[in-house]
Amino acid sequence: MKDYFMVVRLINERDRHLARQLVEDNGFIFEEDYDLLFGKFEDGELVATAARDHNVFKMICIRESHRGGACLGELITALIDSCTYTDIRNFFVFTTLENRGTFSHLNFTPLITHGKVCLLEYGHGLANYLQQHSALKRAGNNGAVVVNCNPFTLGHRYLIEEAAAQVDHLYVFVVREDRSLFPFDVRMALVREGTADLDNVLVLDTSDYAVSHVTFPGYFLKQDDDRLQLQMEIDLLLFARHIAPFFGITRRFIGTEPFCRTTRSYSDTMPHILGAAGIQTDQLERTSSNDDPISAFRVRKAFRNEDYEDLRKLVPATTLNFLHSTDGRKLLTTSKKYRRRH
Amino acid sequence: MEIVRKAQAGTMQSSDLMVFLEPAPQLRVEIDSTVKKQFEHLIRRQVETVLERFSITNGFIRVSDRGALDYAIAARLETGLFRACADQGELS
Question: In what order do the strands lie in the sheet with A249-255?
Fold first, then answer.
């Protein structure tokens, strides 16, 4: 009987180098931004490799001589097993059109096919996510905003209030991804409090399906332009093909973006992708204070400098109360050491 | 027995399956299979038989099957249940 070789973690420089070679031999780029790297050796030779970057499986490469066998199943098992003790529930893979079927046979569901790229997820996370929010479905001409609200400012309030006045119901999708100074629970609570008086506003989270690590990693990490563009398009297609039809959303509202280049190109791409699906993009002029546009970035800066006079002009009372609270004071300490983009 | 924590069992190899369990207010079984069209009803029946045997009345159970035989389904699900339940119970 043939010896059985296991999939193992690749942790040393030599193994990483072998993985890089295998990936490059397959015509892919070895991406350094992964959490874990796996490989399978046979008689000292690396025959397969795969990596996990949070909830995205990538660089899945198998030496040609070992394809069509058990290798892929073993790699996927190792990748899924590595998530057992994490809070990751949905797994994603980007692949090419010709490999879509292979992943379908591993119970991956295709979410988006765009050009030659396919995004698939293991299981039915998106369907479950929509099902969980089916109680929020409303008839009518509905609009949506997707916001990070790090934290909720008077600018967000203005955008939501203006948008809500133009539609029957406005869905406010708060970005779930926890890579911002203000944790998701806080951001969500401040959005809820800050919009509680608006009757036709429904607040929900985006899960992994909008502006997330999967759909739009460029929002959180700097990346090259081509890849960024592709990811933005996939993010918008997910919204246009799956989220918007479910909630009856026909308009998406955004604010003008004077600061962040990435967000600006996202806004520029939006009308093209959403427009093709019959969803209108409405860009509203950002509101200002002392002639400067209000942004969450400006709020975080004022917060870091403990400039509560300025903060009073930038955030609603609900957010200001939080910033003064014990939890808010804790974040102040964090913010002084904070180096991330959001 | 009651599902009180997240657990999983099995592999994604051909002729095997993975079972994912987590606590939930109601009992819900989601089945994914490469042979779903032909055998979903049989996979579901096998899963339900095991759940009944262990008196499982709530939890979210996801099965990702790659053409496993009945006894493999039972074995993987039992293992998953022992991992997910507080009261480890007696092997029956």
Answer: A201-205, A169-174, A142-147, A249-255, A280-284
